[in-house]
Amino acid sequence: MSGPGADRTRTVACIPALTDELAAAGRLAGLLAEAAADVAVLAARLAAAPNDLAAVVVDATRCSPADAMAACKLLRRLDPPFAPILVVVALEQLDELSLRDELFDDFFVSSADPRELAARLRHVLVQSGSTATSSVVEHAELTVNLENYQATIAGRALDLTYMEYELLRFFATNPGRVLTRETLLNRVWGYEYYGGARTVDVHVRRLRAKLGEEHAHLISTVRSVGYRFG
Amino acid sequence: MTSVSEQQANYVLRVVEERRIRFVQLWFTDVLGRLKAFHVTPAELEDALEEGMTFDGSAIDGFSRVQEADVLAMPDLDTFQLLPWHTEGEGVARVFCDIATVDGAPFEGCPRNRLRRILGGAHDEGFTFFVAPELEFFYFDSLESAGPPHPVDLGSYFDLGTDNVVGRLRRDTVRTLEEMGIPVEHAQHEDAPGQHEIDLRYTDALTMADTVMTVRHVVKELARQVGVAASFMPKPLAGVQGSGMHTHLSLWRDDTNAFFDDGDRYGLSPLAHQFIAGLLTHAKEITAITNQWVNSYKRLVPGNEAPVHVSWARNNRSALVRVPTVKKTKVTSTRLEYRAPDSAANPYLCFAVILAAGMAGIRGGYELPPEAAGNLFTHTEDSDLPMLPTSLKEATDTMAGSELLHETLGEHLVEWFLRNKRAEWAAYAETVTPFELDRYLPLL
After folding, report:
1. How far apart are the CA of A93 and the nearest CA of chain B, in angstroms?
2. Is the pLDDT of residue B89 over 80?
3. How far apart are CA A219 and CA A215, in angstroms?
């Protein structure tokens, strides 16, 4: 099945906030989860660029079920209506979903394991025909296989440490975007890592070394801001 | 929820499978900075990652305590890396280990644990410590011949050919390091025949200590493959300069270089002044660690670009602590260079004592002495500047009385180190050297 989502990004927006579980589920599904606190801003962004997101997760346990349904409604009223939308509910909120099936594509109960969330995310993406479900990210001569953790450049296997792999994956799934050091630290290392922005510089330099001189330019430095891939 | 360490373990196991790795080498470092390894097969790896590998610590110098011989090697998954010189299908990877006691506590005799602890202390005060060493070494024909070794590029056979072999070897070495994620700033031929230098790009001190261990191994291994012998001995040849490990240092507070200050005439913050003062005040005490062999003190002599006096200066290569000039547009690269260490130091302990000395200056609010003027290489012992220790004996005696060193390294390490080094000195003192035979035999 192909659809409007054929060349979508791999980003999933989480309303109203990004929890550790959602971030982990995104990672497991090979997607990048980000927080979207303001639904109106998100809707405006999608109206302008419908392919900017692979999916939206609305977490009713972090706002009220009424707010969650209002958010879904707003996204469905866009032209074209946004899909897929997944709703997270607490067990006792399940009733809130009845008679509102048109507002979301799937739901899960907040106690679910991130692996289940990841599987459901992938499933709805496949159903909506998004290429974001592919487990191989390609960019120029770089391929990153999200399933077996293997990356190659011009056919040569890259032997990466875990953090280098995570960093490269994050870059490859966000081509063309300027990523600040803070974003990279938070999204790749997690909030608890110490070492500051220098850590990012050091790892980028290591990654460039492994890519080799010919391909080091894949990650370009954006002066006093951060980095851009592609 | 799966933790980061579980995800990391899965990553490592998956890479081992995909890349058809035959063996994983578990690397660790003994007290004297020598690389040790076990080999495990992929089948054993999962257990080794989870539970560590038990081994008899008394088999390794510096790890022995009579009553508790068994220790555990715990792999640090951050450091899992394929070794690029092994061929496809027979892959070999390495992972650095921390040493723990059988009940899981960090083992007192493990240099890597020790550096981690010292870095943790600085981190608690908001600082991250970055280092960038310049590693010097020699390529020789062989390490086994009697008499002084022959530098390869002095070989009497076709000079151009040898030069090509060595040039290619150094380039291959740099490429291999880059493939392993070790960025190299420069690599060049050094002053002495057969001497080369690899300058590494700064990183956090723990990663850098691992990197120094890796570089020494890669340099030797790749040389061996083309029939050349590499050595990091501090002073292998008389009359030419020895192999130093000049180490560039910077302290960072969040994303700010804590050594930089625009208002200061040296471009240095008060903190940097105190750090230098700490290095100078404790320089003699840490020398046994930064220069740990009898031979190290043959390098620390006047006239061969090695520091002799305890001094600091801007852009003066004869000072112990040098403050390199930085461009106005590159103030983030403000740093200090500590020039005493040699390439045969234990990098973990070396970086730990350097940081401890500098931090003592900060914590104690030490006063920076005046900058040394002129070329210190030509200074003689008449200079009123204090001298670095001139022998391993003097260095170990100074270390034995140093509160800072006992605190930084812990009793277990200090006691073992002093015992080992005093034995080394005793063996040396008993040796009748060629110098004595040449000079005295005909005369006396």
Report:
1. 23
2. no
3. 8
